[in-house]
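Case study B.
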Amino acid sequence: MNIPRTSFPRIVIIGGGFAGVALAKKLSKQEVQVVLMDKHNYHTFQPLLYQVSTGGLEPDSIAYPIRKILKDFPNFYFRLASVEEIDTKKNKVRTNIGDLKFDYLVVASGSKTNFFGNTEIEKHSMAMKTIPQSLNLRSLILENFEDALLTSDLNERNALMNFVIVGGGPTGVELAGALAEIKKGILPKDYPDLDTRSAQIHIVQSGDCILKGMSAKASQKAEDFLEKLGVHVWKNVRVTNYDGKMVTTDSDLTFETSTVVWAAGVKGATIKGLDAEDFITRGNRIMVNEFNQVKGFEHIFAIGDIACMATDEHPYGFPMMAQPAIQQGDQLGDNLLKIIEEKPLKPFVYKDKGAMATIGRNKAVVDLKNWKFQGVFAWYVWMFVHLFFLIGFRNRMVVFVNWVYNYVRFDREARLIIRPFKRN
Amino acid sequence: MNIPRTSFPRIVIIGGGFAGVALAKKLSKQEVQVVLMDKHNYHTFQPLLYQVSTGGLEPDSIAYPIRKILKDFPNFYFRLASVEEIDTKKNKVRTNIGDLKFDYLVVASGSKTNFFGNTEIEKHSMAMKTIPQSLNLRSLILENFEDALLTSDLNERNALMNFVIVGGGPTGVELAGALAEIKKGILPKDYPDLDTRSAQIHIVQSGDCILKGMSAKASQKAEDFLEKLGVHVWKNVRVTNYDGKMVTTDSDLTFETSTVVWAAGVKGATIKGLDAEDFITRGNRIMVNEFNQVKGFEHIFAIGDIACMATDEHPYGFPMMAQPAIQQGDQLGDNLLKIIEEKPLKPFVYKDKGAMATIGRNKAVVDLKNWKFQGVFAWYVWMFVHLFFLIGFRNRMVVFVNWVYNYVRFDREARLIIRPFKRN
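Model:
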């Protein structure tokens, strides 16, 4: 990879997610050379992917060109690349576009969907971790309704209109709520010649509550909201298989459906060279110390979802969400400069700013440290926070316009099958 | 296709473009059953496709769900279908989702890119008639610059940064202008480690002027604007081949390039059953009389790009643009009702509302019947007219936000490689 060597130390960052971008910004005006690599040329605002899948937002409004984030930074290089291996002995990364030496390496490769080894589920169900995946789901949902019009077989029609979401975390809950609103507000108008009342939305959750990471109050209220919207919430049920037609579970419960969304878990997106047992812990995450250093190295770090920093309060690492990623990226920026200046490092302390999830129109739950609230106000707070954390003024404006329009008109206009999924 | 027969006559419309949608709207509150079929579930605002290709607009803001256009109309059916054959004897259409009988048939299938039989050009060059095609071009342009960074071969790098647009009509001119602005305003910031000044944009035009359908003044001014933006305009040069690396022409001129956009012509998107020589004329269009009736039929019609209505002023049919399509759809709506009520038909008269093209920031040309003007004011008129004709309030708002942002910030933020084209 032809990146010139300068007198500045070279920091290679793998991944332009929340963690990688926060770190890059912190290093912007420092005497270091930074090379950021990502498989995509854009940063994805993952918390809003479910709105892309359900036609509420266009994909381009939750993506932001990484080169634009870095454009005013001197000594910055972006490369569109897949990292294939990390050579910790020779201090270089091997990518699909060539090798690159590093002085410091930061792995911020994030997480991917965890199918827990079930290849049949992986083959037949939909994931929602990237924009292309979310667009595939959008196409599939719409294609299903178009197909439901064509069949006279009642079972087949119902299977096309049944949606099974596996996993009751924020992704599953938010997607289920959005689908329920589409069922109520859009389907009867778009498909007057189809009995869309028989469409069903199911959440299947292996644990005994939804939104497990949040307060009992939030969890209960979210469940109430979902039930009010007509979503079926199944708790203490574990999905055992899905063959493309039938979902089986560890109970008597089965679902005939054409659409399973797998939101039951994520795992670290490990990279060869740092994927040996020595480095990896629960959930495929790389163990790091309080400075985000990978075991055995002083110059190799991991931050964000891929990193597992075990603390007393979080023995299995911090939740795989935006906040810990941003905070770790931020802090590591400071620490890298301290290392270069040979100053002592500052350990990472996670500031839990709370959690929130939206279920639908005027329906959200928010857990702050000292204040937990639900309903209309929580919904406004949810929107404000998401607008605030979106990168880019244009994105904020476009998302705002869409949200106002969708709210006033009970609508979601991006119900477009731009690239068909089934007919592909 | 399970669409119930009612006592109303059934009108089948093939195609949800400008013509088909205008017709459908006209029939909305009448005592007819209307079935509209399209390969996509959305209407595409084709005049702005070049802005999608160049990252100025998100695709979803120039698309509009067809079901939503029809949602308040009783007796309306939409089917996502490809029509495979028209059986004029049995009065039915054969589609990929089954057959359907019609009482009246309206072919509004539009046009597609015309490669004039050159399969090598067709294989290697990019077209820009649909949203997926425009997104492919967007990805390709961006991927080329990412790849240009990686090569040390100067010829290869230049080929990656050279863009050859074949055809000097509105599409070619508007795309060239947008690329020139990207070269000037965005590339130097996004690719500080690449000498983007050597990027070249060429328009190759077989005739002796660009914007052939417009006034000599508009054509000349557009050429001046393009030259000011650094676009190379080649007139009286005909492209003879492109093998993926080299463009050859009927002169000594050749271009080494990775990207050829073919905007040199369109032809009618004919359908089996109405594609015999009896029906077809120049440009693969279906000959129609002044009521848009296809020769030999009283109940089969063609409107828009696919229809060729020869008049004294337009011996080869009206230009293949939005205006004639909208006007024909509109008028045919009235005439269909007249046929059903057994009243005499009204012949179609084309009201030429003029033509316009934008070249770049503050640079457009407008030809009205009695007034031809160019420059800043023309640019405002161009924007206003395009906003006005866009379907949907949300689309207008989002496009407006983008245009204001792009204007103020000299930017185009949708430079996203959502689905890679080359690496696919």
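The first strand of chain B starts at residue 10 and ends at 14. The remaining cases will be described in the next quarterly update.
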